[in-house]
Design goal:
The complex is a heterodimer. Helix content of chain A is 38%, strand content 4%. Chain A is built from three helices and two strands; from the N terminus they run H-H-H-E-E. In chain A, a hairpin with a 2-residue loop joins strand 1 and strand 2. Chain B is of the alpha/beta class. Chain B is built from 15 helices and eleven strands. Chain B has an eleven-stranded mixed beta sheet with strand order 1-3-2-4-6-5-10-11-9-7-8, sandwiched between helices. In chain B, strand 10 and strand 11 form a beta hairpin. The longest helix of chain B has 25 residues. The chains are: A mainly alpha, B alpha/beta. Chains A and B meet through helix 1 and helix 2 of A and helix 9, helix 10, helix 11 and helix 12 of B.
Chain lengths: 97, 463
Amino acid sequence: MEKFSAEYFRKLANDLKFDLSDEEIEDLKRDFAEVEKQVDLFDAIDTAGVEPMVYPFEAETIFLREDAEADTLPQNDALKNAADVRMGHVHVPKVVK
Amino acid sequence: MKSRLNAAQAIEALHTLQPEINACVTIIDEPELPKGDALQGALANIPVVLKDNVSTKGIRTTASSRILDNYIPVYDAHITKKLKDAGAIIIAKTSMDELGMGGTNRNAYTGPVHNPWDTDRIPGGSSGGSAAVMACGIVPLAIGTDTGDSIRKPAAYCGVVGVKPTYGRISRYGIIPYASSLDTVGYFTQNIADAAAALGVLAGRDDHDMTSSQKEVPDYAANLNPDLKGKKVAVFKTLYDKLTHPEMKAAFDRLIEQLKEAGAIVSEVAMPEELMELIPPVYKTIANAEATANHSNLDGIRFGMREPGESVEEVMTNSRTAGFSSYVRARFVIGSYSLFEENQDRLFRKAQKIRRLLSDAYAKLFEDADVVIAPANFTIAPRIDETSEVRFGNDRFEDEHMQLANFTGYPSLTMPLGLADGMPFGLNVNAKPFEEQTLFDVSAGMEALIGWKGEPEVCQTIR
């Protein structure tokens, strides 16, 4: 598949679980010309030996909590926002038919 | 903190202004009132508004996206609870750019928000609804979130104070995320004293957010000291040099002179332009990639708007196609691309490495300074019909420089500096991590020098 072809973007979008119109794909082609230009800008910067910065601070804020039940959601609350609920479960179309 | 309007008056004012500025997604006509200890809280009976990405139990929370149009949280965000415990009355959920992704507040499911100073212009985004409400002084505290200047730019465009505290100072639990390594909860106020009081209420460790800080929360309001004598104020010259608008430049120059007269020690600091040029692409690469991952749970299955389909996959695809705007889907495609195995090193990881270089250079600016100041905006708020939502490319670094505080996590605020062509413009003030007291102290001193007293004409209808 040719990179940045309509088919390429359609496949990319489908992996992300949505569709794109032909017009949206044309807009994306223009965006990706800029994305690729930016690689040149990035390449010009020497980052040898530089660690990626994942979060602003590296201070330890995590801890091991007691192995006790905490913050549970009652079933009716957990299901409140689902569009289709049957017999206490979120209902979806059959997977194995 | 005091409110000019009580909750009922503020709700009425929101309704009155809604046709003009379209700032709210939901106006809560019968809000929950404080009870018990909350009646003695720091915000007792104070009306507040929340950006619509803050979870509110029992109140619709859409993040201005169609996919969450029917979503009613079953729990409160950490800050929602804090506000309620302090006695605040939550009267509205405000409009934003869809899922926080944008800087205009034009891309909201309920339509664009209008700047109260000129309703043909944007309020800025993504926290544009809260900024517009604050511009009219309807409430003394409006909550926003700031991933890449989403509080501070709208504050500058709307003539109010906008605060992005240190990353981790306020818990993000219950906030619909955008980019987790940059997202910061903050707020809008009318003045610096209220900004200091608000942080005292909102800040503090929360075990539900593993990035929230365990540092003690000082009493910022009680300790507020506006004395500028001996304070080290560094002017960010790389940005100052880009200031071409005559009224903006004159106001900035006047402030520098006033600072010197008040006994502040004023110096200049700079960063190489070649490095500054990397701010916008590094931001977009990291933010889009993190957003793509964060929003993979929006699929219409367990919550949100569901579209019909023959299979689970089809339900998800149809729900996400109809649920996200074209603009947001494009940003997800760009974000996902930089996370592909073959692109990660040259795009996403490279951006994270450059983020560290930018952060190290930014930290150096503070080596001999209490605060670093810069213009917040270099142009006035653009007209709605002239705004372009550039998804990638060609941003000027001076328009995006406040993202440095998101890369580094440093605290940063904007405050009104003056009017140019009848529209507000702002001053950006930055301090070292967890030095919000210094940030507020120096800003309070400068607030007195600037003497801002602006109010948009449209807001006078609510008098």
